[in-house]
Write a structure and sequence with these properties.
The complex is a heterodimer.
Chain A (H helix, E strand, L loop, with lengths): L1 H58 L18 E9 L5 E9 L6 H7 L4 H6 L6 E3 L4 E5 L35 H31 L1
Helix pairs in contact in A: 1-4
Chain B lengths: L4 H8 L1 H11 L5 H8 L4 H8 L5 H4 L8 H22 L4 H25 L4 H7 L18 H8 L20 H26 L1 H26 L6 H6 L10 H7 L4 H8 L3 H8 L9 H16 L7 H25 L15
Helix pairs in contact in B: 1-2, 6-7, 6-17, 7-8, 7-10, 10-11, 11-16, 16-17
Classes of the chains: A alpha+beta, B mainly alpha.
Chain lengths: ~210, ~350
Amino acid sequence: MERQESSENGRESNEGISVKEENILNFLDSVDGYLILMDSLSSTLRQGWLELASARHSMGASRINSTLFDHKLHPASTTLQVNEQSAGPDRELPHFTLCKWASSNNPEKYFEEAKFGEDELLKKSNSLRHRDISHNSGNVCFPTFRFDCLGKMTRDQGFDLEALGSISMRVLKPVTNPLEMVVEISNMRASLLCAYDQVQKDMETATK
Amino acid sequence: MYGFEAMTFNIHGGYLEAIVRGHRSGLLTAADYNNLCQCETLEDIKMHLSATEYGPYLQNEPSPLHTTTIVEKCTLKLVDEYKQMLCQATEPLSTFLEYITYGHMIDNVVLIVTGTLHERDVQELLEKCHPLGMFDSIATLAVAQNMKELYRLVLVDTPLAPYFSECITSEDLDDMNIEIMRNTLYKAYLEDFYRFCQKLGGATAEIMSDLLAFEADRRAVNITINSIGTELTRDDRRKLYSSFGLLYPYGHEELAVSEDIDQVRAVMEKYPPYQSIFSKLSYGESQLLDKAFYEEEVKRLCLAFEQQFHYGVFFAYMRLREQEIRNLMWISECVAQNQKSRVHDSVVFIF
């Protein structure tokens, strides 16, 4: 009887150890994935800066500069959806999804949400704004910057005649890859933090 | 046909031609560019430029140096040289020198209007204007709501006034209209400059016709390629092409209906001077076309100095300096961003 109990205890502790190891491996995998994505983002942004310099070289500094940024508020054409996903018993993981070229039947609704300035977004970063309570999801709209010569993001009619005088305009495609990477990094970070929580809990259990 | 320029040119233009030829000898050489391309930091670039004519303009700049500072100071040097020549020039050379700056004036007008549309501060916009394109009432551009007001309030008293007849409308200024306005103004300016040079006659007319025709053809190609896949109609595209140049009129007809870069290539390869440019590119590629055009332009500008007694040397010198400043800007950006492997992508050697 005692032998049976001890073997059961041994099996449970073996299983517990393997679960802990699995959690640690998950955590290390998340860290690895996160670092790879960060490196990839850094490389993409570096490339983007050089392309910007190349455009400024071809088109001239007067056509590629900060005055092209529009300080007006516009309905966001790219939005970020934050959902809660189940990651196990009693655990929810935030999941980020990028929604591009979203069109709304009610443009004013988008404009209302786009009134969040960057400062407000920082202050309210922990609170999600609910667009529709029934869906129980939060939408955060980023104010959209209009790039006259760089992007076409807010032009509804698709007329992207931004710059005719220089070929380099074609080199600058709308910069969406870094946005996707940032979202991927956010998701990876969420899973990394979740794995870290799990590892920490295992360590606390072990010390008790 | 040439007149007796050799007999009379030096009376009014000899001194300034000598001055501009002296400036030309100060342009950076391939050896200078090789040294600059090997710099590790912007301070190294400053150190190498201190041995050139840019030295006095950069020596007092504090660290850390920025790429925009280098470009700004180099541009300042060009502006100083231009103003020295302009104040000593008599007619018709003074008018010719003013014509050279109208392109920058157009860019400045568009910059102010675009920036105002985007609710930027006027002072901030004025700081970004090209110094060669400044005029007295430029700050008042910010109050205009449409092109009619733009013309009536500000531009009627500027040299750009005659170019506005083709694009005066009551439409509000928005990004699309502004871009079309820019290209329409530039087309009118090029045509007017071309007519002025033709009136001057002689070697100036011949050499400047070639240089301006190349500029017009290059713009036609750029407009075509950049408007592929947009809603710009064929007629609107055709309206933006200048009415002179090697491609006028049959090349323009074919370019107006081109739907992709390979069709543009097919059109351009019919013209021997442009065959060599497009032969450097692989099919479907347009990114290297800019550099190919710059190289061809530099070649033609350098040839302008092979002849005497004409005003083309002034135009050529200004353009070569602008190319040099572009080169310095690119080298500085590559060094600042630690991307020295890309430094030769866009540098165009002059000598």
